[in-house]
Fold this sequence. Notes:
Layout (H helix, E strand, L loop, with lengths): L2 E12 L2 E3 L5 E4 L1 H6 L7 E6 L5 E8 L7 E4 L11 E10 L1 H6 L3 E5 L5 E7 L5 E6 L2
Parallel strand pairs: 1-8, 2-6, 3-5
Antiparallel strand pairs: 1-7, 3-6, 4-5, 4-7, 8-9, 9-10
Amino acid sequence: MHIQMLKSKIHRAVVTGAEVDYIGSITVDPVLFEAAGMLEYEKVQIADVETGNRLETYIIAGEPGKGEICLNGAAAKLVNLGDHIIIMSYADLTPEEAKSHKPHVVFVNEKNQISRLTRYEKAGSLYDLEVNK
């Protein structure tokens, strides 16, 4: 048996673009998704903090260091420029693996630059691993 667990997330990224006339996906600065342990073309869930909309898509890489977060295709209709979103990836783990699993969390500032990298360690607790200023 396997259970789905949060693998990683990029917390409160700011939407910088929405391109309806695109084949689909979310364009993400690779500096962010690599820091979260995500891969290009990986399936992700997106939650819009302002609207409450949730959707699933996959990551494509933008230009490194630009802070780009652009929803493409139909997903572009579910967000607004400037909205804050949470980008989450999941992993299938055995119950034994899940007991010691600690998701990666990337916090960003209003320019989508990394402000803090953390790991969840216990329910309701965050422990800082690194601070980038």
